[in-house]
Amino acid sequence: MSANDLNGQRILLIDGHAMAFRAFFALPADRFTDGRGQSTNAVYGFTRMIFTVVASERPSHVVVAFDLPGGTFRDRIYDQYKGGREVTPPQFHGQIGLIQQVLDALGITWLTVPDYEADDIIATLATRARAEGGEALVVTSDRDAIQLVGEGVTLLQPVKGVTEMRRMDAAAVLEKYQVPPERYSDLAALVGESADNLPGVPGVGPKTAAKWITAYGDLDGVLDHAEEIGGKAGAALRENIEAVRRNRLMNAAVLDLDLPADASGFALGRGDREKALAVFDELAFGDTTRRDLPEILLADGGAEAEPAAEAEPDLPLDTGEDLRALLAAAPFELALETADDVRAGALLGLAAAGRRGALVLEQLDEEASAALGEVLTAAERIHVADLPSAREWMQAQGYALGEQAHDLSLEAFVLRPGSRSYDAESLGSTLLGHVAEPRPRKPTAASLAKEAPEVRAEHVERARARVAAAAAMLLPVAAELSAQLGDAPWARRLLDTLEVPLQATLETLHERGIAIDQGTLAQLREEFDGFVAQARREAGALVGEEVNLSSPKQLQVVLFETLALPKTRKIASGYTTDAESLVDLQLSLPVESPGHEFLSWLLRFREMSKLTGYLVGLDAAVDASSRVHTTFQQTAAATGRLASTDPNLQNIPVRTAEGRRIREVFAAGEGFESLLTADYSQIEMRIMAHLSEDEGLIEAFRSGEDLHRFVASRVFDVAPDDVDSAMRSKTKAVSYGLAYGLSAFGLSRQLRISQAEATALRDGYFERFGGVRDYLRSSVERARETGYTETILGRRRYLPDLTSDNRQRRENAERVALNSPIQGSAADIIKLAMLAVEKDMREAGLSSRMLLQVHDELVIEVAPGELEQVRGIVVEGMDGAYELSVPLEVGVGVGRTWLDAAH
């Protein structure tokens, strides 16, 4: 580089492999493919990261450095270097090459140097930039880059995927590590680096290492005075001096690689728009990526973009006056995000085209509050993530969201189920590659009390900026989702006919809640507490001492030392005490032995503790009218099944007598005479018969005989009357195991039979029901070809792992491909039934009302005199929800409590 090349300029230096890996693990691989089986999540995340960093930092030059396969000079120094790293995930293969294609199209230089790492390329260029009076920004997760930080060099360190960056200057490094940047390599030599398989001094952490370096100046000073350092840490240091010297040699950055001398080759503004768009099309990136391509990267846009270094800022939307100004611009679309801040209270983020802001609702005067209400009414469309939560939150603040509000989370879920989260920032990250500010830690009450007013105000402004940014981001998220839905008519149809109407029904169910008999609840709590105490007492008596049955460490001592029982599976902390292992262990012991009896009481303790905990949570959720209000979530399960939270009313145990008794607590409320429960009988098997078109299964359902007895008679080749309970149980397990993608190994574990017997049982099943075998095979192959599975209503679940080179990933995806159409179709049918029952009961003008959906069961609160009418509506609505090739059988029970209504 000549002296003037980077003088006064800013160069962005990116560790290509490090950031690609972070992008890979930050975004779900199953939601990003090019349509031909190649995963592209790392490419997408990396590309969005480039867009974001270039747009926010406005560099003049960019270089991306990559490692080369085959190792470097460091591997010759220490043959265990990076030896502890896991095998590269198969879905990552090929993505580095695709990233380099994107960089070529964008005109961004990428470099590799044989025998050296990307770190060394970055270190050389950062050192040159600083020497020439330029500024270097280093983007990497590798902590070795900390040694480069100083005047002219800043580290942008990702703290969450590639969406959040921590800006590390010299002051930040000193605050975090208690040593200046130039001494960080000394600290790392003492502490070690697990990511590089460089072991440090045992028992020496960053604080101790920093204390030694501060006392003796640098690493050489520490080693020169090693004999003076006392205690175990000093002894460990003296025993590991050679390893420490080796670590320092390994982590030292190379500053003088022979790299291109002309910085003009690194300048921005050399990208080809057409090539970039063609690459994005090949990668199946959406319209958002095309739209957000920064002009500064392009040869035909850079010059034009140069004068407009800063985008025109959005107008504020923080006051009543701002809200009135927005009203004058009607019609408008609005995006909305809510937050509860520990300092400011209720924060409402709002955004419209060219406007964004965040309102502290407690500070609004009467006029501003009225203006906000008018804005919410006047908006022709309101974009929200998680509409039910937002609606409830707004209602608690005294505002209403009307029918023009719609749920972006629900749209994203239908298009691509299975994400960990669908909140505003997650949607922005997944769909737009948005980089959010790191979430601050919640302060303690003590620190809040000591906080200065100006510091408090600063935190509040930061929180307001965050919620405003989240709201503003929902506008392009909505546009991207709209574009994707335009290309996916199946998803649009599913939203319009099922999921959106159901959302309103679920909000109604939440408002209604279900009544709790608090007397019965208190009685059960006392009784179950007694069972817990008894189990603890009896277990202690068997070993002659009090035992903390909740402590895995104490249990290991009692089980494997005091009682000398056979060892379970080895784990890091000793031997496992998980439930499955303990049940297996108990079955291997003589029934009258102390070990068997101790395990009986231990398992009893765990069961009753779990039930007691459920009752405690239920008690805490009861409102002033003695009802609990669960929240039904539509986006929690990739199969489309609903989930219940706060409290979860879908996980009430029913396998044990005590678990079933919890349903005694739920009763008909005041003004109602009973609860009616209605559920589908064997719906998964009926869907299996329908989808597989297996004549044997269809005959079983149409005959009206006991399904599992009918199937067992065919599998075991005996008359139905000769089928015993063991035969019936085994074939029932096979039937449902196939519907849930259970392997022969899983079947053997469930039935506690050998894997050979389980395989023979499954093969015998397939021999008699060949249509099921053929359907299961074809469904996996069809999903492998198309990339997704489909339910009877067209709900899709994308499974790119079906073509994975990794056997475990591929087999997991195959199991999902087997069960998703069946479980998903069952979810579709019960949702259709809910809509029909709710509609028909309302049109009939009944006071009775639907309260809960629990998997394949509906719970109805019946008003006096309406039982028979309600029964007819529920049975007709469920039976007619969807026409299968076999009848949908609905069972009904009625009683004062949920337990009484069991059938």
Automatic annotation (TrEMBL):
Give GO terms: molecular function aspect only: DNA-directed DNA polymerase activity
User: Do you know which InterPro entries this protein is assigned to?
Assistant: 5-3_exonucl_a-hlix_arch_N, 5-3_exonuclease, 5-3_exonuclease_C_sf, DNA-dir_DNA_pol_A_palm_dom, DNA/RNA_pol_sf, DNA_polI_H3TH, DNA_polymerase_1, DNA_polymerase_A
Catalytic activity field: DNA(n) + a 2'-deoxyribonucleoside 5'-triphosphate = DNA(n+1) + diphosphate
**Domain DNA-directed DNA polymerase family A palm stretches:** 659-866
Keyword annotations for this protein, in alphabetical order, are: DNA damage, DNA repair, DNA replication, DNA-binding, DNA-directed DNA polymerase, Exonuclease, Hydrolase, Nuclease, Nucleotidyltransferase, Transferase
Q: 5'-3' exonuclease domain: which residues?
A: 9-269
- SMART domains to which the protein is assigned, alphabetical: 53EXOc (SM00475), HhH2 (SM00279), POLAc (SM00482)
CDD domains, per this entry? DNA_pol_A_pol_I_C, H3TH_53EXO, PIN_53EXO
Q: What class of enzyme is it?
A: transferase
Q: Which SUPFAM superfamilies match?
A: 5' to 3' exonuclease, C-terminal subdomain (SSF47807), DNA/RNA polymerases (SSF56672), PIN domain-like (SSF88723), Ribonuclease H-like (SSF53098)
- Give one Pfam family: 5_3_exonuc
The protein's Enzyme Commission number: 2.7.7.7
Query: Is-annotated flag, keyword rRNA-binding?
Result: no
Similarity field: Belongs to the DNA polymerase type-A family.
Describe the function of this protein: In addition to polymerase activity, this DNA polymerase exhibits 5'-3' exonuclease activity.
PANTHER family assigned:
DNA POLYMERASE I, DNA POLYMERASE NU
Q: What is this protein called?
A: DNA polymerase I
Protein species of origin:
Brachybacterium hainanense
Taxonomic lineage is:
Bacteria, Bacillati, Actinomycetota, Actinomycetes, Micrococcales
